[in-house]
Amino acid sequence: MEAFAIRVGEDEVRDKVVKLMKKCMEESEKYGKETGFMVCRGEGEYLILPPEKKGYDEVELPSCPEGYEPVLTFHTHTSSCSDEPTITDIYSMLDTKAKMCIGRGGKVTCYLPEGEIDIEEIRERAERFLKVKEEVKSLIDRINEILGGAEYEKDEALRDFSELLDKLKEYREVSNIDDLKDKLRKEVYEIG
Ligand SMILES: [Zn+2]
Predict the structure, then answer these.
(1) What's the whole-number mean pLDDT along residues 93-111?
(2) DSSP string covering 104-116, please?
């Protein structure tokens, strides 16, 4: 899909957003990458902005320009991950103060905070999550290197494997958002 920045009126915004959600989910399934967009409200019009960066398990959405306020963010999750928000998704939702919608396989789930959520605590959890995720990635890279290398050291590989197992346990802990589920209002739409 081409990068887009669209200006639409009050009466067409809903249609446009649903169409783009469909397009993004199709693109995401085809290329296995996350994508999305940001919807900003100005005076009598809306701006729909493309992502700044797309990645395999993350997407970066732009901020709204001056004079516009963020009203909705949309991003896809690829089929290999769940349609639940990550702790970093929840942090961005609190940070942008906009409704957050996640699309996967034709299903769109939107979230809004309900009740008090301590944004500082969520920011810390999101940072820890990103750190552990990076650590898991680099451990996997190291193990791949060892297994593919000429001088394969069994002891070294075993040590790295057990480190990876511990890290994965930690990853499961830091990615758990069960305690926040009753603080999120959830709406589900089938649009595929
Ligand atoms: Zn996400």
Answers:
(1) 95
(2) ETTEEEEEEE-S-
109, 101, 126: which is closest to 36 by C-alpha? 101
Of 105, 102, 83, whose CA–CA distance to 92 is shortest?
A: 102
- CA dist., res. 58 & res. 126, Å (int): 13
One-letter amino acid at 48 equals I
Instruction: Report which secondary-structure segment, H or E, holds 54.
Output: strand 53-54
Question: Residue 66 C-alpha to ligand 1 middle, in angstroms?
Answer: 26
Look up the pTM and report it.
0.89
Q: Tokens 């169409």 identify what position?
A: 19
In terms of Cβ atoms closer than 10 Å to its own Cβ (0-12, 13-18, 19+), residue 173 is: exposed
Order of strands, sheet of 184-190, starting from the edge strand that comes earlier in the sequence:
6-9, 45-49, 36-41, 69-76, 99-104, 107-113, 184-190
Q: What does the pLDDT look like over 68-82, one tens digit per residue? A: 999 999 999 988 778
Copy the structure tokens of residue 64: 């709204």
150 CA to centre of ligand 1 in angstroms: 39
- Average pLDDT score over the chain: 91
Residue 77 Cα to ligand 1 midpoint, Å, equals: 6
Q: Near ion ligand 1, which residues have CB within 5 Å?
A: 89
